[in-house]
Specification:
The protein is mainly beta. The chain is globular. Among the domains are: 109 residues, Thrombin, subunit H (Beta Barrel), CATH 2.40.10; 224 residues, Sandwich (Immunoglobulin-like), CATH 2.60.40.3540. The N terminus is likely disordered.
Length: 559
C-alpha cells in the first residue's frame, strides 16, 4: 500500500529494524534449543525452557558426540528394488506431525533412533544403536522411516531433525514398548501421530498397522513386499499403554486445523483439506461449517466441487469423491502414487491433476475418471525459494485453467491440453483467483507486496502494499481488505483492518484485526461471495465473520 495520505491511512514499505531482526533471531534460537521431554507417565509431554549458554554449549557438544556414534549406525532407507539378504530384518514405520502450521519444528524431523534391548550384563556397542532415515517421496507431513536392521529386540528412543543451525528432538523413550526384528522378515510398526497441544505440550497417538500402511509399504518397497509376501509380519509387543495411545487417534484427528487450498465457489460454497484426512466444508446457502472425514490418515491438499459432491486429493495418490456430504467416499484410480496437490475439474467435464513424486511434478488430464484413464501433459522440477525456504508449492484453479505456483514465483499453468510456464519474478507466499479470473499473489523480494495478474500470470501489477501486511482479501480487483498497520513508520505500530475501494491507490482504516489472541493471529481472510461479509481463518480451528468491514467480529466456528 502506498505511503499514508490524509484522510486515508495506508502502511508503507520499510526494511525491518536491527532490533526487530535481533528479536526474531533470539526467538529462533530459543525455539532451536528446546527439548521436548516427558512431563510425567501420562499421555502429555511438555517443552523444557533452554538452559544457560554454557550448559547449552556442553549439551550441543554432547549431541555432536552422539551424532558421531550414530552416523556409523545410520541405515539408508530401503530402496524400491532392495530385498533382504538373509542376515537382517526390515523395519518400516510411518510418522505424521499434526502441527497447526507449516513452520512447526516437527516438520523437520529426519531421523528415528532405535536402541537394542540388552540382556542382563550385556554391554552396549555401536551396533546396538540404529538410525532410520526419513523419506518424503509423495508426502509433505507424512514420513516413512525404513531400514534393514540386525535381528534383536528394540525400542524407539527419539526422533530428530533440524533446519539451518537449529536442532529439534522429540524424545519417545520406549513409550510404545519394544518390538522384534527377525531375520528375513518385516517389522511393520504402524503410524505415530505427533500432536502439539496448547503452548509447549504435545502427545503421541498410535495407529496400528492397517490397510493404508500396507499399501504404502507395497508401493514404496515393491521388491521387499514381493519377497516377504506370506511370511510373518511383526509389530510392537501389545501393552495397555499402546492401547491407550491408539485411543488418542480420534482426538488428534479432531485437532487437525491447517486448512490446505481454501477455496470458495461463486455462490459461496467453501472447502479445504487438512492433515489426517480431514475436509472443511460449508455448503452454499448455509452458515454451518462441517469437518468431514475422508476415511484416511493421508493429508488432503485439494478439495473441489465435482458431480454435485466433493473431490478430495492428497498424499500418496489420494483421489476420492463423496456425493453424500462426506458419509462415504469413492476412491478413483490416480495417474500415479505421488502427492496430488491439485485435482481441478474443468468446464468440459475433464479433471486436471498435478502430482509430485520426489522432486518432479507431472501434469495429467482425464476425460473419464471412472475408467481411470489419464493422459500426461508434461512434467517439470520442483523449485524452492531462498527467501522463503519453508514455503510449500501453492495451487490455483480457474474454470478453464489450473496451475501450481512455486515459492520462487514460477507458475506452471495448463488448459488441459498443454503446460506453460510464466513467472512473477518474486518469492511467493500465496496465490488465489478472483471470480473474474484475476490472480492475486502475495510476494516478497526485498519487501513484501501484492501482485495482480489479469492474463493468467503473463504480466503482473505491483500494488506496492506494505511488508507489514498480515493478510489481504479481495472482493474484486477494486475492493480489498487487509490486516495491516494503521499508520506505520519504521515500526508497524497498531494493526487494524484497512480497506481500499480504488484498487489499492488509497486505504482507509475501517475496523480492527480479527485476531482473537492478538492482531497478528490471522492465517487468511476471504470475502464471502454469498453476502459480501468478511471471513477470517484463525489458529486453533476458529473462524470469525464481520458484516461491517471489521468494526465488529463474531465467531462462527471454533474448536
Amino acid at each position: 500500500m502506498p505511503h499514508a495520505q490524509p484522510p486515508t491511512h495506508a502502511p508503507s514499505k520499510s526494511a525491518p529494524s536491527a532490533a526487530a531482526r535481533r528479536g526474531r533471531r533470539r526467538r529462533s534460537r530459543n525455539i532451536a534449543s528446546l527439548s521436548i521431554l516427558p512431563k510425567n507417565e501420562n499421555e502429555e509431554s511438555s517443552v523444557r525452557p533452554s538452559a544457560p549458554l554454557i550448559q547449552r554449549v556442553l549439551r550441543y557438544l554432547s549431541f555432536l558426540a552422539a551424532c558421531a556414534v550414530l552416523v556409523a549406525c545410520t541405515t539408508a532407507p530401503i530402496a524400491s528394488q532392495q530385498t533382504l539378504t538373509g542376515q537382517e530384518g526390515a523395519v518400516v514405520l510411518k510418522l505424521i506431525t499434526n502441527s497447526p502450521g507449516e513452520n512447526d519444528p516437527a516438520e523437520s524431523l529426519s531421523s528415528l533412533h532405535l536402541e537394542r534391548v540388552l540382556a542382563p550384563g550385556e554391554k552396549q556397542t555401536g551396533r546396538d544403536l540404529v538410525t532410520l532415515v526419513r523419506t518424503r517421496q509423495a508426502t509433505y507431513t507424512t514420513a516413512v522411516f525404513s531400514g534393514m536392521v540386525n535381528p534383536g529386540r528394540y525400542v524407539i528412543k527419539n526422533a530428530m531433525g533440524g533446519q539451518g543451525n537449529m536442532v529439534y528432538t522429540f524424545p519417545i523413550d520406549a513409550k510404545f514398548g519394544s518390538f522384534d526384528v527377525v531375520k528375513g522378515e518385516v517389522t511393520l510398526l504402524g503410524t505415530l501421530l505427533i500432536q502439539p497441544r496448547m503452548g509447549t505440550r504435545f502427545f503421541i497417538a498410535y495407529v496400528p498397522p492397517e490397510e493404508e500402511l500396507q499399501k504404502s509399504f507395497e508401493t514404496l518397497y515393491p521388491a521387499l513386499a514381493s519377497q516377504t509376501r506370506g511370511r510373518p509380519t511383526h509389530g510392537f509387543t501389545p501393552t495397555a499403554d499402546l492401547e491407550r495411545r491408539a485411543a488418542l487417534t480420534s482426538e488428534s484427528k479432531r485437532r487437525a486445523s491447517l486448512w490446505n487450498g481454501l477455496v470458495q465457489t461463486a455462490d459461496g460454497e467453501f472447502m479445504a483439506g487438512s492433515k489426517l484426512g480431514k475436509v472443511l466444508w460449508r455448503k452454499a446457502g448455509t452458515t454451518r461449517w462441517k469437518e468431514l472425514d475422508v476415511g484416511t490418515w493421508r493429508e488432503v491438499l485439494s478439495v473441489r466441487p465435482f458431480r454435485g459432491g466433493l473431490l478430495a486429493a492428497g498424499e500418496e495418490g489420494l483421489l476420492r469423491l463423496s456425493t453424500d456430504e462426506g458419509l462415504s467416499w469413492k476412491q478413483f484410480a490416480p495417474p500415479d502414487d505421488g502427492l496430488i496437490q491439485l485435482a481441478q475439474p474443468m468446464s468440459d467435464g475433464s479433471v486436471v491433476v498435478f502430482s509430485r513424486s520426489d522432486r518432479l511434478w507431472s501434469a495429467y488430464v482425464s476425460e473419464d475418471l471412472d475408467a481411470g484413464k489419464w493422459r500426461k501433459l508434461g512434467e517439470f522440477p520442483d523449485t524452492q525459494s531462498i527467501n522463503v525456504p519453508w514455503k510449500r508449492t501453492m495451487v490455483v484453479g480457474l474454470p478453464n485453467a489450473a496451475g501450481v505456483m512455486m515459492p520462487n514465483g514460477d507458475l506452471h499453468m495448463t488448459d488441459g491440453k498443454t503446460v506453460t510456464r510464466v513467472s512473477n519474478g518474486q518469492s511467493t507466499l500465496d496465490v488465489n483467483a478472483l471470480p473474474d479470473g484475476t490472480l492475486v499473489s502475495q510476494t516478497v523480494l526485498m519487501t513484501k507486496s501484492t501482485l495482480l495478474s489479469k492474463d493468467v500470470g503473463k504480466t503482473w501489477t505491483d500494488l506496492n502494499t506494505s511488508r507489514f501486511v498480515v493478510t489481504i482479501a479481495f472482493k474484486d480487483s477494486k475492493t480489498a481488505y487487509a490486516v495491516s498497520p494503521i499508520a506505520p513508520g519504521v515500526f508497524p505500530g497498531p494493526l487494524g483492518l484497512m480497506t481500499t475501494r480504488d484498487g489499492g491507490k488509497s486505504w482507509a482504516h475501517t475496523g480492527s484485526s480479527p485476531g482473537l489472541t492478538g492482531p497478528y493471529a490471522v492465517r487468511q481472510m476471504m470475502v464471502d461471495r454469498s453476502d459480501g461479509s468478511l471471513l477470517a481463518f484463525l489458529p486453533d480451528n476458529a473462524i470469525v465473520r464481520s458484516a461491517d468491514e471489521g468494526k465488529t467480529w463474531r465467531i462462527v466456528k471454533d474448536d
